[in-house]
Amino acid sequence: MKYKQVKWLILTIPTITIALWEYIRHEFLLDYISMDIGNLLSPILVFIVTLVFLRHLFSILENIQEELRKAKTKKAALIEREKLARELHDGIAQSLFLLSVKMNKFGRKNHLEHDPDFEKIKQTLQHVHEDTRQAITDLKYLPNEDSFSWTETIQHYVEELKNQHLMDVHLKWEIGESTLSSKEKVELFACIKEAIFNVIKHAKTNQVWIHAIEIDNGWICQVKDRGIGFTNKEHQSKKGYGLQIIKDRSRDMDWEFSIKKLDNETIIEIRKERK
Ligand SMILES: Nc1ncnc2c1ncn2[C@@H]1O[C@H](COP(=O)(O)OP(=O)(O)OP(=O)(O)O)[C@@H](O)[C@H]1O
Ligand SMILES: [Mg+2]
Asked: Which ligand is nearest to the Cα of residue 197, counting in written order?
């Protein structure tokens, strides 16, 4: 029922009740109910109707108002986050892009294209740029909302990946909305984002698979790619934080984390098995 309808019902129900009662009383009940008793019954009847119907209508009205308030707060937060995302995009992200253009020019001018140190600086700059873009994407979500709809959030994120990073994402999500607690959803989402961002940054491919299934006593979530894989051991041991953070998150949540290589697939797997 809509807000306006409820309001009008609250306003008109007592009037209609008393009008109906008076009509019935005068037309049909005068022989059975005396004037004095009828007068006494009128307020009692209105009171009972008020208790039965209006209380219910008032609670509907309160619920609608509460929902409106929540929606307003959510919208305000989203607007703020989008503003921040825009500022990040128009400020830092564009400056970083300009910086990378200048770096390339500088490299060409000074014949530094094959200088390993220069390459490293360029790579770092590219990563900072990608991290900033990721932060911009992240700002468009409200991960701690009560009404955090997992499936919706994941699909929204996949759309962003397709549009912003031109990734080809194959999503097969078969874990029910109620299987994961709110905390699990937030933590797992963060892990998936890092695993996918690693594919974007390191795997040299634009295809990624997100597969999640429920098993007898838990669930499995995998992020797969068919890119270059963890080929360079030296590279793996360098000081990235992403994988370590996924490991720590998994440990804290009592999940199993593993990195697998199957044929040409690199698989980041998080698994929960209730003991
Ligand atoms: N999907 C992948 N394919 C190939 N290599 C990967 C993949 N994911 C991670 N790696 C390798 O593992 C290393 C460690 O990843 P990690 O996420 O810990 O660090 P990072 O991405 O380099 O930096 P950070 O996440 O701190 O910004 C990466 O530098 C990269 O060499
Ligand atoms: Mg990383």
From this structure: 2
146 SS3 class:
coil
Question: 149-275 architecture in CATH?
Answer: 2-Layer Sandwich (3.30)
Any atom of ligand 1 within 6 Å of the Cβ of 198: yes
Centre of ligand 1 from the C-alpha of residue 228, in Å: 12
Q: Where are the domains of the chain?
A: 1-142, 149-275
Testing ligand 1's pocket by substitution, the residue of 165, 201, 262, 264 carrying the most ligand atoms inside 8 A of its CB is 201
CB 233 within 8 A of CB 272: no
- What is the spatial distance between Cα 9 and Cα 2, in angstroms, rounded to a whole number? 11
- The pTM of this model reads 0.59
At residue 84, what is the residue type?
Answer: L
Nearest-ligand number for the alpha carbon of 234: 1
How far, in Å, is the centroid of ligand 2 from the Cα of 15? 68
Q: Tens of pLDDT along 124-161?
A: 888 788 778 878 877 876 655 555 577 888 888 898 88
- pLDDT tens-digit readout, 36-81: 999 999 999 999 998 999 999 999 999 999 999 999 998 898 888 8
For residue 10, CA distances in Å to 16, 18, 20, 48, 60 come to: 11, 14, 16, 14, 11
